[in-house]
Amino acid sequence: MPERNSLTPRQVKLLRKLYEDGKTIEVHTVEKTQDELAKELGITRQALSNHLKVLKELGYIRTGRGFIDLTDKALELLGEKKGDVFVFVKIEPTKRRHVYEVIRRLKIKKIYRVTGDVDLIIEADKTKLDEILEEIASLDGVRETNTHLVLEVL
């Protein structure tokens, strides 16, 4: 398979743009139109389409109607190793609604509202951990966070 040096700088820039604009669901996905991406990258729609075709043929992306998924191969090339993290969050009862609203806008996989000693369990990709913790720590009403990195799935 071709390596990073066989991609053009524009194709690597496109992969980076897709990664930054994407959100992790079960894969790292971008829900933008090709027109939007082309405009943001300052290239024509046709040029973008050609780059996407190459990236798809090389196994860096999967595409469908209305989405572009980055594969593990693309994440590895970008230095964005995947891995899961769980952040347990305790929230002041009177601030819950506000905290929930802000956390919903973060680039995370899932948010679980739970019973017990914590209010939320956030499942995220560890490449976003610093960004997520910084955002959560700045929220008025967050009492405490406790972070757990997944070592392996058994």
Mind explaining what this structure looks like?
This protein has 154 residues and is α+β, with helices and mostly antiparallel strands. Helices cover 38% and strands 25% of the residues. The chain contains six helices and eight strands, in the order αββααββαβαββαβ. The protein has helices at residues 9-21, 34-41, 45-57, 72-77, 96-104, 129-137; strands at residues 23-24, 28-30, 61-64, 67-70, 84-91, 110-113, 120-125, 142-149. It has a four-stranded antiparallel beta sheet. A hairpin with a 6-residue loop joins strand 6 and strand 7 (120-125). Helix 2 (34-41) packs across helix 3. The longest helix has 13 residues, at 9-21. The mean pLDDT is 87.
